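Handout for the seminar on molecular recognition.
Each group receives one record of this type.
Step one: identify the two inputs.
Step two: read the structure output and locate the region that could contact zinc ion.
Step three: write two sentences on what you found, then compare them with the reference statements printed after the record.
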Amino acid sequence: MTSGIIYDPSYLMHEQSPTHPERRERLSYTLDQLEEEGIFDIPEIKLIRPKPARRDDVLLVHSLEYLKFLEESSINGGIIDADTYVPKNLIHDALLAAGGAICAADAVVNQQVKNAFVLSRPPGHHAGRSNGAGFCYLNNIAIMTRYLQRRGLRRIMIVDWDAHHGNGTEEIFYDDPTVLFCSVHQYPFYPGSGRIEDIGIREGKGYNINLPIPAGSSDKVYRYLLEELIIPLAEEYMPDLIAISAGQDNHFSDPLTGLALTAQGYARLMQEICIIADSICYGRIIAVLEGGYSVEGGLPYTNLGLIAAMAGMDISNIREPEGYQKLLLQSVSEDAFPKVVKMVADLKEKLTSHWYFLNRSY
Ligand SMILES: [Zn+2]
C-alpha cells in the first residue's frame, strides 16, 4: 500500500512577513529536495491535492466566535499576539491547511493510502478552542482528529514531537479519554506549559502525557522515550490511528530551539512508529507538519527522512550534508539523558493508577 503526501502550491502563499521564521521557504526547500530525490516518481508515493476544510469541520474544535474573528480579521488584516499576525486572506490559507489534514484522513480511512504526511502551512498545535498563538490559527491535527472520529474511528493517539509543547491540542482534548495526547517538548521553553503533573482532568485523567526534556537532548533521548513510554502507551491504548504533530524544530540546526535530533534520528523515530502502527492499527499514521525553522539545513532532510520511513524505503542514507556535523557536536548535551531518565521515573509514578503496563512486576 502507498503513502500519501498532501501538498498544494497554495501552501506557499501564507506569509506574516518575509523575515518571519514561519515563512514559505520552509516548504519550498523541502519540495526542491523531494523532487531532487525523485520522491514523486516512486510508485509507493501518491501526491494528493487538498481541499479547504468546511466551517462545520472547524466548528468541531473551535468556537464560532473565534472562527468569526479569523474570518473578519482576514478582510483587512489583524493581530493575535506579537508572533502571530493575521495577514489578509489568512482564513483561506488556514482552511486549506486544515483541509489537507482532512483529505489525509479520508485517504487513509478509504484505504487509498496506508499512511500520509500533510506538508501544510500554517501550523496548528498552539491554537486552542478560542484562540490562536505561536504562528498557529486553526488546530489542524485537532480538526482532523474530530473528523476521523466522525468517520467512525474511536480512539486516536496524538504524538506531538514538535520542540514546543502542543498546548492548544492539550487544551482541546484535556478531559477526553478518546484522544491520548503525548507531547515531547523542550522545557522550560515557549509556551511555558507541558509539565509532567498535567495528566488530564475528569474522564480524561491519565490520557494527557507530557514529556518535557532539556535543551541538548539527542537521538538517544528520543529513542529512550519511545521505548519507555510512547510504544507501551500505544500498545495498551490500542488507537485506531496514530496522528503525529510533526514539528521538525528539534533538529540540531534549528535557529529557534535547543534540541539536538538528527535527520537520521527523525527517520528512525518514524520507522519505529510505523512498526507499532502495523501491529495495532493497520499501519494507519497521519503526520501533520507543525514547526521547523531550519529552512536549508534541517527541514529538507528531516522531511525526506520521515517520508522515506513512512513509505518503507531504506533510510540508512538519510543525513544532513557533511558541513553540519560540527554544529551537531556543539548542540548535544551529555547531561540531558540522566535528567530525562529521572523525569520518566517521576512521570511513571504519576501515571501508575491509569496504565496497566506500569504496574507489571515482570
Ligand atoms: Zn515548534
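Reference statements: The longest strand covers residues 179-186. The mean pLDDT is 97.
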